[in-house]
Amino acid sequence: MAIKDFQKKSFLRSSENINATYSFTEIVTTTGYIEAYGTKTATYSLSTFQIYPRDYSEVGTEATGAATKVLDLDFDIIINKPLTLLGKAVINVPMILMNSNVNNVTGHLVAKLRKYSGGVESEIASSGNGQTVTGNNSRTQLVECLEITVPITIFKKGDYLRVTIEAWVDGHAASTVSIEILYDPIDRRTLVPKSGGTWNILLTTSLKAYIPVRIDF
Fold first, then answer.
1. Which of these, 14, 122, 164, 193, has the minimum number of CB atoms within 10 Å of its CB?
2. Residue 117: pLDDT band by 50, 70, 90 thresholds?
3. pLDDT tens digit string along 2-49?
4. Which residues are CB-neighbours of 2 under 8 A, at least 6 positions away?
5. What range defines the domain where residue 98 resides?
6. Number of structural domains, the chain?
7. Residue 44: inside a domain, yes or no?
8. Per the domain annotation, does 12 fall within a domain?
């Protein structure tokens, strides 16, 4: 029977009493995606639902002029069924970069994918440095797109998948430089940034991760 583009098909695996449904794209690429939002309730986490968070952003500052990591945020989700990661992960991160004076400063983000198992954290892969962002006292706002090449990585039930976002301020003349990362699952665009000013309503405030999962037929 011919498979039509993007038509859903159901397959009953002999070893499982469930129907697994896949799109045409998932079938031909043998890859599905976990789509999850970075959020903060009692702790930072990844949520597959658009929940109202307890908080919506974090600000890191640097005032000495040194190149410094100002934020290091871990967003976790527990894995309740064995799975294998493989492919290209994409992380979209809303951010603001600003300086306390008119001089231009630069910074960048880094995304890392990690596995937390049995009390041990291991790094799977990193995006490396994202694009160099330039800002001053007028504030630069954007949604960064970070890509991670994910090797074959097996998770067992009870392991945690962790997305880490780092914000770095590059070397600069001494002044107060801030980077703010936003993570609002419900995408409220009228939120007031903690670093000051107003948010560009054309940009999302949601931090979203697309994690590739290998599908074995």
1. 14
2. very high
3. 444 444 444 445 455 667 788 888 888 889 999 999 999 999 999 999
4. none
5. 29-214
6. 1
7. yes
8. no
